[in-house]
Amino acid sequence: MDKDITVDKDDLAEKINRAQREMSVLYEISNAMRTTLELNRILYIILTGVTSHVGLGFNRAVLFLLNQNRSLEPKLAIGPESGEHAQRIWEYISKSNQHLDDLIKEEKIEQNTNPSALYQSIKNLKIPLGDGHKNLLAEAFHFGMPMHITEDKIAQYANDPLLQVFKTNELVIMPLKAKDKVNGIIIADNLFTRKPITENDMKIFIMLANQAGLAIENSQLYELVIYRSHTDPVTNLWNHGFFQNKLTEGLEFAKKNTQPLSLMMIDIDNFKKFNDTYGHQNGDVILKELANILKLSSRENDYVCRYGGEEFSMILNQTSKDQSYTIAERIRQKIEAYNFPKFSADQNLKTTVSIGIADFPQDAHTKEELINLADKAMYIAKFSGKNRTCLA
Q: What CATH number did the domain enclosing 372 receive?
């Protein structure tokens, strides 16, 4: 009888210790998520909490977020590339006695958010969520419930889009919620250790997911506020303040790396006369449509901004004046040929633009010089007949 009591006490003590460890893990991860509102950092903290030895301890994890096209898109993945790689990581962490705070330092995030082999293998997997799309991730999203695909059932889903690229023997699919709406999903497994995923693992994962979903929503709301503070409300382009900041950053990078940078100033020809003739509502249509043409004509590392009024600017990083001229002429010709819709009427409108270009380091060495020279080149284009591109 005394032996049974001792066993019960030992079992109870073990359960209490485990519960304390789990609460400690959740407390640390929750605290870490409260240190920032930056989305990339939040996502990294969440996946570090899922995969680290001081967190839930899963071998691998991938985080998907809901995008504007109502698809689930992979945003971050953490996990070793092989069993040998995993062993090296775990030995290093064990010897260095690292805590969660050590794992989420700024430099660690920069090192580990670079595309990993795991992320590369899954980055093109976008899961549409419309009617008729039946797969594991869509099911977890629509029902909002965690799924545990055990080793004896994994073969049933061999043709699922997820398992075509994420090869595993057992899997957890965990929805992330905020106010009962799913905003993301984490998939996690123990491919290398083959450690079975227990009911207790699922319980603590659900608790972490509840906090993670709220943290992601707060971060996305924060980023939306920041985005709106940097954008022009009419055209949805970057505004003048953002332009000034990005041009400063771009020039610093160009100087440090001895690379060219070009600045394009674009002005709508006869815009005041256009507004007087057709009204400001049609003027806004022109501004919005032209902004869209500029965005579609830009590259990933360019910045298209509304400089003010009817004047736009484009920062072309790592681009020479000759290259910029080719881009400018393509844009000018596209605008000249474009049929701008007229507000509340079937009739189309036409307009043209004058463009000026200056570059670093050929024309200018400071931000002020660059803006001034590009602006002067644009005015030369206007006063020499309009609808043309001039170089500084």
A: 3.30.70.270
* Pairwise CA distance, residues 69 & 252, whole Å: 36
How are strands ordered across the β-sheet holding 71-78? Answer: 127-128, 71-78, 60-66, 181-189, 171-178, 147-149
Name residue 74's beta-bridge partners: 64
Between the alpha carbon of residue 55 and those of residues 23, 35, 87, 100, 344, the distances in Å are: 11, 17, 17, 8, 58
Q: Does the N-terminal peptide bond of residue 361 adopt cis geometry, omega within 30 degrees of 0? A: yes
Q: Is residue 232 part of a domain?
A: no
* H-state helical runs in 230-346: 240-256, 271-278, 280-297, 321-337
305-339: pLDDT as tens digits: 999 999 999 999 999 999 999 999 999 999 999 99
- What's CA 102's distance to the chain center, in Å? 24
- Contacts of 91-94 with CB under 8 Å at 24 or more apart are 93/52, 93/53, 94/53
pTM of the model: 0.69
Q: What are phi and psi of 223, to 5 degrees?
A: -65, -35
Q: Encode pLDDT of 33-82 as tens digits.
A: 777 788 888 888 888 888 876 668 899 999 999 988 889 999 999 888 65
Q: Which two tokens stand for residue 316?
A: 């072309």
**What is the C-alpha to C-alpha distance for residues 367 and 129, in angstroms, rounded to an integer?**
46
185 and 270 both lie in a single domain: no
